Amino acid sequence: MVKIIDTTFRDAHQSLLSTRLRTEDMVPIAEKMDNIGFYSMEVWGGATFDVALRYLREDPWERLRILREKIKKTKLQMLIRGQNVVGYKHYPDDVVIEFVNVAHKNGIDIFRVFDALNDVRNMEIAIKTAKKAGAEVQGAISYTTGPVFTPEYYLKLAEQLIELDVDYITIKDMAGLLTPNFAYELVKDIKNTYGIAVNVHTHSTSGMAVATYLKAVEAGADYIDTAISPLAFGTAQPGVQIVNYVLPENVIANINMELVYEIEDYLRELIETKYKRYLRHEAIRVNPDVLRHHIPGGMFSNLLSQLTDMNALDRLGEVLKEIPNVRQDLGYPPLVTPTSQIVGTQAVLNVLFGRYKKITNETKNYIRGLYGRAPAPINSELQKIAIGDEKPITTRPAAILKPMMEECRERAKNKNIKTTEDLLSFCLFPQIAEEFFELRERGELKPVDNTKLKGTIYRMHINGETYEVGVEEIKS
Description:
Layout: E1 3-6, H1 8-16, H2 23-34, E2 40-45, H3 48-56, H4 60-70, E3 75-80, H5 93-105, E4 110-113, H6 124-133, E5 136-142, H7 151-163, E6 168-172, H8 180-194, E7 197-201, H9 209-218, E8 223-226, H10 240-246, H11 257-275, H12 281-284, H13 290-293, H14 297-309, H15 316-329, H16 339-353, H17 361-367, H18 380-387, H19 405-411, H20 420-428, H21 430-442, E9 457-462, E10 465-470
Parallel strand pairs: 1-2, 1-8, 2-3, 3-4, 4-5, 5-6, 6-7, 7-8
Antiparallel strand pairs: 9-10
Helix pairs in contact: 2-4, 2-11, 5-6, 5-20, 7-8, 8-9, 15-16, 20-21
């Protein structure tokens, strides 16, 4: 029997609705969701923390507590970016430890821990802390393709995660690149070699996802991730309605499809009346181009928007060819936050200004080793151009960071911070959190109207994750 992990309240709306699903629209169906029979529900983490504070003007911790109160039988889980926590840079160990412990106390039963570079050193603190707290841990492999990403590579990575005592391995396919046949072989190899349970997570970007799940289940996958359509498919996970129909009878454990259809009706009406403006065409269509240049459909459309605004749309073909080159030069990083942004931005600069004539600070820090260990060697000529004779670090990146919690406490004085949860929000996103606390104190928390934001704002759909970012000139 394969168990279902539902992503409707996290990855699904993050992928399709720019993470805009509000808590008030989750509450009416939360108890029904609890009675469907899912093994767990992913309801927190990823971009939901940032977007709740920045745009929805909701306290993400309060959302978690509300859902925990409504969902009593089903385990709640979150996606945590290892040492990045729910942010976009490495945080010191004391912040990671405090965050994991407080998240567990507020209702998280399962932590899905991943790292953009598959550098297990960046996952170690989060995994060990969650295990010590008594939570389940999914050790997540960021799946991608390239010359170094062999079955042996993934087996070795699984072994490293198992050595950290994870409860099961998650194959996290962010861009929908996992083919049915490779899924079958990888699941089978991991289970036969290590005897550990395997979870498969994919996105429907390329159109292969349902077939991939079918073969993964045939190979013995213990868990698969689905969402409830219409918050499914496209750049999100496959809909549980179709997956339930496609898989052999009695393979899926104890799913109440009548409740699923009731929630489907609710979501369809909700999207039509409240969220339709966030549901973009490129997010819901199949994009086979991802199989050629490994760029998810939303990232492709974002490149179109950026190049159009820069009067350089005629250079799109060059950018598409340059992205794989930059990825190769940087040691084949998986394209997931934050490496997808690093590679994409550098490729655009290379095309517009000449190869590595302008190098972003993020690219330089990546080459310095501040994001972790690249899967393959970095191009030595690029390294020389970017950082000269400077030696990249070889230690765990967070090991060179100073503890931060006490400093945060000092800076947080007189900033309307009332709880440990508030303090963590401030540590992770100081400017956004400070503004949020001020508005909360004045009773003026209202969702941000993006049409009134100043500057150039891009909505970026990257590997199933959606971000809204302001773009300013990069100076060398």
